[in-house]
Amino acid sequence: MLKQSPAMTVIVAAIQVQIGNRRIFMASAMQVKVATDPLVRLDDVHLTLVSTAGAVNILRGISLEIFAGETVGVVGPSGSGKSTMLSVMAGLERATSGTVTVAGGDLGRMDEDALARFRRDNLGIVFQSFHLIPTMTALENVAIPLELAGRRDAFAAAEAELAAVGLSHRLTHYPAQLSGGEQQRVALARAVVSGPKLLLADEPTGNLDGATGRQVIDLLFALQQRGGTTLVLITHDAELAARCGRVVRLGDGRIVGDSKHQAPRAAGAS
Amino acid sequence: MATLALALRLARRELRGGLRGFRIFIACLALGVAAIAGVGSLAAAIGEGLRSDGRALLGGDLELRLTHRQATPPELVWLAREAEVSTVANMRAIAHNRANDRRTLVELKAIDAAYPLYGALTFDPPLTADAALGLRDGVYGAAVEAALLDRLGAKLGDVLTVGDAMLQVRAAIRSEPDRGGGGLTLGPRLLIAAGALPGTGLVQPGSLVYWSYRVRLDPGADTAAFRRNVEAAFPDAGWQVRDYASASPGLREWVNRIGLFLTLVGLTALLVGGVGVGNAVRSYLDGKSETIATLKCLGAPGRVIFQVYLMQVLALALGGVVIGLALGAALPPLLSGLMADRLPVPARVGLYPAPLLLASAYGFLTALAFALWPLARARLVPAAGLFRDLVAPTRLLPGVPYVAATIAAFVALAAVAVISAEERRFALGFVAGAAASFILLRLVAALVVWIARRAGRPRSPYLRIAVANLHRPGAGTASVMLSLGLGLTLLVTVALIQGNLAHEVEQSMPAAAPAFFFIDIQPDQLVDFEALAKSVPGVTGVEVVPQLRGRIAKVNGVPAEQVAAGPASRWALRGDRGLTYAARVPPGSTVVEGQWWPADYHGPPEISLDEGIARDLRLKPGDSLTINVLGRDMDARIANLRRIDWSTLGINFAIVFAPGAIEAAPHTFLATARAEGPAEEALYRAVTDRFANVSPIRMKEVLATVNDLLGAIGRAIDVAAAVTLLAGVLVLGGALAAGHRRRVYDAVVLKVLGATRRDVMGAYVLEFGLLGLATAVVGGVLGWIAGWIVVAHVMTIEWVALPWVAAATASAGVVVTVALGLVGTFAALSRRPAAVLRQS
Q: pTM for the full model?
């Protein structure tokens, strides 16, 4: 049972790293619990938005489980619901029906402020358009999540993270003074600085040229592996999706393919 | 606290983006705060002038004033024993320059050697009082206001006749310390020595002479104790006792009242500016929606986001308030120099914290009242907007606490306006009117948008664009109508009030008013006077009534000082009033309650009282007033109440005695006469030639004095109202700036599709014309209603609709709107399409 779990690789790695330590067994016991409980669980999630043009059914019964440490590429045509699914996982959008559980928390039961705190403690998000705050320096942009969490070492940690993405010489620069690739690296640093359990990336190379995009993606995977973080990556790029351990394909608000589960009907079944 | 510190940090970082978009915000607040702080500081400076110069203005620590009679020897002995005393007599008289036969009414003042007890009397040339006024070669001297020399064509050294006396003008008065403490002056000052007064022959039984006994107490002596002692020693003296702290209650009240009115006009400017504040905050937060969404994605709770932007708004409000306070505080030094001749007392220029604090409170409360709503809505910015373009409608209403806070800020604003005003009913009326105007304008704006939305599809594409611009999302229709509409409402109101006052004074009054009031006609001169007046060709309507002065001492047995009097009756309880007696209802009066006495009434004293005073003092027929006449208290029963048409300016008295009560007291007669053109001058000369002691008061000069005063007040109000319109223009500018990018894009697309600049301009003219027209109509109608309420129900004078005033003022609004709108969009027309389209 355990060996069939998608989180198995991580657990083995964890045990291997910690061999010789008296706490091996406790650590493995915890990992077993995580492994049996998916980090992300969407259960028959529907989402309908109402605009002036009328109601639009964006998600039509998404069921999906993502386990800790997985890297999941989400692909599909424009309008298939990829970004919306990501929004639902981030608690930015409320499902019209169905349940969304992330890191053991039922997002449907949280109010706006609880969701904000949940994101602060568990999530890192990378956007296609970077979404850095223009009035803040690179260092301040990266420090915000830690400042929001009340961390006293916010700026020291942010500086270290910027150094990790190769931007220690750009600490006091404002977004407008940075290139697109640099801005996305700042955004990456901001997403991982608080050590999130789940990293959500929405077409992070969409606004970058090919070479810069590749550098950013390499960095993204390096950071993900460094922290053993679970990564959900939306992309139009099949090659990039292939770098993920698992690829989920969306079409018209439904999961139409899952590389772990070949048949669409099995998608999301645990 | 940690959250607040974080919010403060983030707010500081956000403000690095600069003040773009907040210039209007700051300008609106600064303008309103400056107006309020300026008016308040000026009023405080004058008030402080009144307070600090109180002793000089009053002429002593205390003043005991008698009308008609002088203090008795025992009273004088008592006063001289207790303090240093100075005696001053004031009356009106005619000064005659026999060299050229020119004559004019003067305010005659006779002073003793002890005058002034406080302050300094100085002359030009710098003579001593004795040298200027004393007896020299058998002739007393006189010092005069410079204006009198011009009026009489006289120069220093000339001899004037006053009554029976010859007086040599030896000096011009440079400063007279108690000059500002008097009431309305009808002529220039003529100052003589007390010793010269008997020689004039003007002081006769019943003459209208005000005898003032000013006292200077030992330093540290208790004025209240002195007052109690003098009232205990001479309980029936009938003198009016005032101390230096209330040297000029009428003047102080007047300054306060004008100050309140101008403050409320300033508050309107601030409210108009508040719309601009709200727009600026809304527009700023719209531009910040991505940042807000990002912060939410990073885990910032709504509370932190609210705090971050609230702090920015407060910081910017602080900037606006500080600029406003600086401008406002600078106003008194600037104005007091310019207005020195107009001010009754020298303003004490200085920094007065109270009006500045009040203006700050108004500024911050306005900023909060108008900013809280958009701030609260910032919380609702959907973070998911970062992932997708599809816009799901957000909740329109912020949460209950924010709605409550917004309402609380508006209520606090109203409460400050009412509580800080001395005339709270007036302030309350203003608040109610402003609120009603606000709501009505907002509703009409919504109606305009609604109509524009349903206007169908006009055939002209430019009319279609114009109509669409009125209702499209983000259109500034509501805010422009609200702000300009409020400004226009106030302008129309002020214009109508001034128009009505001018109409009342210039047209209705002179038509019915007599040419002269003649005062101090002695009983033995009455027959001759009437005969003389009637003998002058062209003179008509000679009316004569007995007159003496008396003071309301008690109201239903309660001392007048302890009676809570409203504004309509305060004047009647303050000081002495003219009294008369009559067998029949005087012309211009109507009995509205109670019964008029029989013509041959002979019974206990009864009076007829003005209805307005009675209502204000809650008196009715059957109640009693105690009137002190010549030092004697007289209890009189109120027999009836009269409605008096004061506007005819005929002879009328608030208090009329029934026959039998006061005829025996020494008194004089008051006469009026109508005359025009040459007859007026002939009457003037005939009376002054024949009766040296009778003083004619020319109504034209009184009206000119009143007009002059009204003109000065009107100019002050005009300036304040213009500030309000300026605030409206700022808001309009802000609304245009907010939509500028969209306008540039629209203009470019239209030009790409073949529209000429004239075509696009035509669409804009239509749009602003429609907006201006709707605003002008609503502002005009609301202003007209407000003007009618103030004129007909607050001032209770005859209402003249003056539709052209309302129409002209409102039309000016249309022109301003269209002109500014077009200036604001001119840049949009001149942009080159390719550059704009590349950027898009």
A: 0.70
